[in-house]
Amino acid sequence: MPPTDPAPEPAPNQNPYELEPKPLSPTLPGSVIVRASVDDLVDAVAADLTAQAKACVRAFGDFHLALSGGSTPEPLYKRLMYDPAYRDLPWKKTHLWIVDERRVPEDDARSNFRMIRELVVEHSDIPPSQVHPTRAHEPDADVRYERELREILAWREKGHDRLDFVLLGMGDDAHTASLFPRSRALAERERFYVVNDGPNVTPPDRVTMTFPLLNSARTLAVLVTGAKKRATVARVAGRESGVDDLPVLGLAPLAGELRWYLDEDACPRG
Q1: How many CB atoms lie within 10 A of CB 12?
Q2: How far is it, in rounded angstroms, from Cα 264 to Cα 98?
Q3: Domain 32-266, CATH 3.40.50.1360 — does that match?
Q4: Contact 106, 100 (CB under 8 A)
Q5: Is residue 45 within 8 Å of residue 76, measured between CB atoms?
Q6: DSSP assignment, residue 179?
Q7: How confident is the model over 165-222, as pLDDT tens digits?
């Protein structure tokens, strides 16, 4: 039997049993919080949200929270409802806003508000008058929602009349809220809430918060999970393009904080 060649020696500092490079905490605008699993990450977001809520209620008497739809935040919404650690979140002092919405009725399965209502509103003691759905299927939904936002936030003193905590996500195309690449809402500089439609918007048409409102917030929290988002996170970290192509780069709080919450699967590898 002919002799076999010996196995090659591993390169220096290389672990022969390591199947995948370790995740790297990406260099993103703002602060970056990385946790090993979605479960750990949900705890980190929930703890920060609860602390912010309590601080705002102490300082201003209320808390303005804006939530997004989609599958990514569902574990967070469920955790806030069943985990005793977050039972003292001050829902009775909270105003609940919707970041963006498809232009469908509120009982439509695609409605962001329907999901938030079923997971959060129906299981918390938030007063109905402090829950603000968009009525997105109505013709003037964007105008009415902007008016409602401005009127209710104006009850606070100047400088504090802003959203306190906005939970956002990021799509595979780097959209956040319903601000899609090369869509017309990206150019809005004055209005808080607008219709976003056209060929660059994933159907159906949307209503959405704009950068002027988002960037005035006290905290913008971008929750990103899963290996499917890894390439997009790397593109955003590398600033491979501008806001037109990577809309999430338009998040730049004027007097607040931008926080990224990532699980290890969503982090680039090195």
Answers
A1: 5
A2: 28
A3: yes
A4: no
A5: yes
A6: B
A7: 999 999 999 999 999 999 999 999 999 999 999 999 999 999 999 999 999 999 999 9
